[in-house]
Specification:
Elements: H1 3-17, H2 27-30, H3 41-56, E1 62-65, E2 68-71, E3 80-82, E4 87-92, E5 95-107, H4 109-118, H5 126-137, H6 143-154, E6 156-166, E7 170-174, E8 181-184, E9 190-191, H7 194-199, H8 201-207, H9 210-223, E10 226-230, E11 239-248, E12 251-258, E13 264-269
Parallel strand pairs: 6-13, 10-12
Antiparallel strand pairs: 1-2, 3-4, 4-5, 5-13, 6-7, 6-11, 7-8, 9-10, 11-12
Length: 271
């Protein structure tokens, strides 16, 4: 047996097992540390060590939040990061969706899309990006969540939804999962109340559900902004546009007539 292990056993025997020759008391108990080890003190100590070790490796998620360690239940706003190939998993439509960091861009819609394609990832839809931003907004002590919010506030997110506007009809929204979701003209554009935002047919189509629209409203609240919807009230000829999400000044913008610029970003989605 190695000498250091033997020495440690002698120390434990002296402090926790045997009675002192002068006081006839166990030194640890005399110092106020009563471990209730029972009649067989070595066996009791081994059992106690086993319990402590089990507690230390128990499968609970411990997150560091603002320099305070908290044991947190998994919630709908969970923002789970795995590093190596850094992935960010967030809840989306009753499941979990995984994004890959770093983000693509900033660049044009086409360039960011091609960068995501070349990485073997999927282009995120507007609704998927809303879920990412929503979860980031609830977890802003996480460095990756901060990066997401920084893009929202200082650049913008491309939503890979193609939007085709047709005269006297409305908007036809397509993405990698859907084709030509029809929204007739008549929906409100410009500044919205939160209630108007979550009920706006154009927003509901881009966000894919009431849940997605509600997440947008919560992002607005977290950023203390006024929501705006940028889109056409009508067109004289076919117009092809893409979607985007950004926050600037006092507004958070659901953009449905974005054409192109070189400052958009996106996080690719892992299949």
């Amino acid at each position: 047996m190695p000498a250091h292990i033997l020495l440690m056993g002698i120390v434990i025997q002296h402090n926790f097992i045997e009675n002192h020759s002068t006081t006839d008391e166990v030194l640890s108990e005399k110092a106020g540390v009563n471990l209730n080890l029972g009649e067989n003190r070595w066996l009791g100590l081994i059992n106690l060590a086993s319990i402590i070790n089990s507690l230390m490796v128990t499968k609970r998620n411990i997150y560091k939040s603002c320099n305070i360690y908290k044991i947190m239940e998994k919630t709908e706003s969970e923002f789970e990061v795995k590093e190596g190939r850094t992935t960010i998993a967030v809840p989306h439509q009753g499941k979990r969706i995984t994004f890959v960091a770093p983000n693509a861009g900033p660049s044009t819609y086409d360039a960011v899309g091609k960068e995501i394609d070349s990485a073997g990832l999927l282009r995120p839809t507007f609704a998927e990006t809303v879920s990412l931003v929503y979860s980031a907004a609830q977890n802003q002590c996480n460095k990756y969540a901060k990066q997401v919010i920084d893009i929202l506030n200082n650049r913008w997110f491309w939503g890979f939804n193609a939007i085709r506007y047709e005269p006297k009809e409305g908007a036809f929204i397509s993405d990698r999962n859907r084709k030509d979701v029809y929204v007739p003209f008549g929906f409100k554009t410009g500044e919205q109340s939160l209630d108007e935002l979550v009920k706006n047919p154009f927003v509901l189509a881009l966000a894919e559900s009431e849940e997605g629209a509600e997440k947008l409203a919560k992002i607005v609240k977290s950023q203390k902004k006024i929501p705006y919807v940028w889109s056409y009230e009508g067109v004289d000829s076919t117009q092809n546009r893409v979607s985007a999400l950004n926050s600037g000044g006092n507004g958070l913008y659901v953009d449905g007539y974005c054409y192109d610029c070189d400052c958009g970003c996106a996080f690719g989605v892992s299949e």
